[in-house]
Design brief:
single chain; 335 residues; mainly alpha; three-stranded antiparallel sheet; two-stranded parallel sheet; 53% helix
């Protein structure tokens, strides 16, 4: 067999490749321009998908700010800004989820006047507090054993509105008997043992749910902090308040938020545009972090004499980290 008149295969492919690529490139149409809509339409759609996803599997429907891209919608910038300055849902977690996705429409907060930015920060949803439980024992030995659950249990179940930021009460009745019936010591202990077992189970379930719910609140807060302008200490002040709000709620993310604040303060605190008054206010806010001590209920147990004992830990913030934030603010003004 002779190969003198054979054209190399690689050479043939190389000669055909440019035309193939050209035809392929020409075959791909440009993406359509975004379709204009109103912020009200966007808010309704986001609220609906948030509720549906939570009821289906107790998760939020999106992991990234991709709503605007997926829908290929555009909303006037002033409508987005106005929406961010008000509460969009009675439920803080849904409110936060909607606002997080609204930020994905490309709003530029740096171009806003300071007063508008302060209103956006002031309406930031706060994380829900960690759950608490209390077992109610009748004084006279009659009646029954009750339980109040200081958590957002109805809210956890189907995202019903709560009063304020996480204020609600769940009151199941445990092993109740007819009013006026007398309970022996043994009867009371058996009822208390059952109540303690149920309380601890509900407490664990509620903590898992509350942490999942708070995910949308904390995600929005982080996205907002990144979008806030640095001038005049706006971002730094918001980050200090964010740490405080997390600590008040007993949220386990408080420590990580403080570490981010320390790192940011090394750069943001030296900004010469921060006024002496704003600097003093931020120092006072940071100082208050060092004294925070938020109780977090760990469980319930039986004690002697048919009594119930409550175990709790206390969430505190690393004082050395707080001191460093204060030092950054002080050194920046030559104190």
């Amino acid at each position: 067999m002779s190969f003198r008149h054979c054209i190399p295969v690689a050479l043939v492919l190389a000669s055909l490749l440019p035309s193939v690529m050209t035809r392929t490139a020409r075959a791909v149409p440009p993406p359509p321009p975004p379709r204009p809509t109103t912020v009200g339409v966007v808010i309704s759609a986001l609220q609906k998908e948030a509720r549906q996803s939570w009821k289906a599997d107790r998760t939020w429907p999106r992991k990234t700010q991709d709503f605007a891209v997926e829908k290929n919608w555009s909303v006037p910038n002033d409508q987005i800004v106005q929406a961010l300055t008000r509460r969009l849902n009675k439920n803080p977690a849904i409110d936060a989820y909607i606002k997080w996705q609204l930020l994905g429409f490309g709003v530029n907060l740096a171009e806003l006047e300071d007063e508008k930015i302060r209103r956006i920060v002031a309406t930031t949803p706060r994380p829900l507090g960690q759950p608490k439980v209390q077992i109610q024992i009748p004084r006279s030995g009659g009646g029954g054993v009750g339980m109040s659950f200081g958590s957002q249990f109805n809210y956890v179940a189907d995202l019903d509105p709560v009063v304020g930021d996480g204020v609600a009460l769940y009151k199941p009745r445990m092993a109740s008997v007819n009013t006026g019936a007398r309970l022996t010591e043994d009867d009371m202990r058996q009822m208390l043992v059952a109540a303690v077992r149920t309380a601890n189970q509900r407490l664990r379930e509620a903590r898992v749910s509350i942490n999942a719910i708070n995910q949308s609140v904390l995600t929005y807060r982080e996205a907002l902090n990144r979008a806030l302008p640095r001038r005049r200490g706006i971002r730094l002040g918001a980050m200090i308040q964010d740490v405080r709000d997390r600590a008040v709620a007993g949220d386990p993310s408080s420590g990580g938020a403080l570490e981010k604040l320390v790192a940011a303060s090394r750069e943001l605190a030296v900004d010469p545009s921060i006024t002496p008054q704003a600097r003093a206010e931020m120092q006072a806010m940071a100082r208050s972090l060092s004294t925070m001590r938020t109780p977090v209920m760990e469980g319930v147990r039986m004690a002697a004499g048919n009594r119930v004992a409550y175990d709790a830990s206390f969430l505190t913030l690393e004082k050395q980290d707080v001191v460093e934030v204060m030092q950054q603010l002080a050194h920046a003004r030559g104190l």
